[in-house]
């Protein structure tokens, strides 16, 4: 993680503000930074935003590969295009896992968020923003995947390490596959 992310997360955890008043984001120029620098963690214009997503995707893909689970990174999915527009309307699946759920291919979509996004004056609840982001992605993509005989799984996490139940279920299943594929030493007969 970058120095900016590390400092931000450390200050979040210790509830130490980084500066006394709100300022405008020097990169995005539209959003305000709050005194805890919430915006720095989730600014889409900063290079670290896409880097974090891609890093988690690459690690998850390597876990599938090491577990001998057939998968493809950034897999183009032909049904995610609008025939009227003739162009892709949705991004490729972050990871496409072949034959994962009931013999159907699984489109895994990763979403990483700051736990303080949109918090405003509301009470902080662990995982609230990750769950909200996951719900939005499911609403946006699940029907299209199901209509085309694919399964959609949202792998959402926040920058504090919270994983949605779907992400935990996916990792648990991968763990079970790895365990069943592991060779155990034979006992002497």
Topology:
Layout: H1 3-14, E1 23-24, E2 32-33, H2 38-42, H3 47-66, E3 71-75, E4 81-82, E5 87-88, E6 93-101, E7 104-113, H4 128-147, E8 150-158, H5 165-181
Give a structural overview.
With 189 residues, this protein is of the alpha+beta class. It has two domains: 1-45, no CATH class; 49-181, Trna Endonuclease, Chain: A, domain 1. It is built from five helices and eight strands; from the N terminus they run H-E-E-H-H-E-E-E-E-E-H-E-H. The strands form three sheets. Strands 3-6-7-8 form a four-stranded mixed beta sheet, with helices on both faces. Helix 4 (128-147) links the parallel strand 7 and strand 8 (150-158). The protein starts with a helix and ends in an 8-residue tail after the last helix. The mean pLDDT is 76.
Index terms:
189 residues; alpha+beta; Trna Endonuclease, Chain: A, domain 1; four-stranded mixed sheet; two-stranded antiparallel ribbon; 39% helix; 22% strand; globular; Auxilin-like protein
**% residues in beta strands:** 15-25%
Radius of gyration: 20 Å
Mean pLDDT: 76
Instruction: Compute the number of strand runs.
Output: 8
Low-confidence stretches: none
For the record, the CATH class of the largest domain is Alpha Beta
Strand order of the biggest β-sheet: 3-6-7-8
Helicity range: 25-40%
Largest sheet: 4 strands, mixed
Gap from first CA to last CA: 51 Å
Helix-strand category: alpha+beta
Return the CATH topology of the largest domain. Answer: Trna Endonuclease, Chain: A, domain 1
How many distinct helices? 5
Shape: globular
Sketch the topology as an H/E string, one letter per element.
HEEHHEEEEEHEH
Number of domains: 2
Proper CATH architecture of the largest domain? 3-Layer(aba) Sandwich
Protein name: Auxilin-like protein
């Amino acid at each position: 993680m970058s120095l900016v992310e590390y400092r931000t997360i450390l200050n979040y955890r210790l509830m130490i503000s980084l500066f006394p008043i709100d300022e405008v984001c020097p990169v995005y120029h539209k959003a305000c930074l709050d005194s805890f620098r919430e915006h720095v963690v989730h600014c889409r214009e900063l290079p670290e935003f896409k880097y974090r997503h891609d890093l988690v995707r690459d690690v998850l893909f390597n876990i599938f590969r090491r577990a001998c689970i057939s998968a493809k990174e950034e897999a183009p999915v032909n049904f995610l295009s609008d025939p009227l527009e003739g162009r892709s309307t949705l991004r490729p699946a972050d990871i496409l896992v072949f034959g994962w759920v009931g013999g159907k291919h699984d489109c895994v979509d990763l979403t990483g968020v700051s736990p303080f996004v949109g918090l405003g004056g509301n009470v902080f609840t662990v995982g609230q923003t990750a769950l909200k982001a996951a719900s939005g992605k499911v609403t946006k993509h699940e029907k299209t995947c199901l209509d085309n005989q694919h399964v959609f799984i949202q792998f959402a996490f926040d920058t504090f390490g919270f994983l949605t139940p779907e992400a935990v279920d996916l990792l648990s299943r991968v763990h079970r596959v790895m365990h069943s594929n592991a060779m155990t030493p034979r006992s002497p007969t």
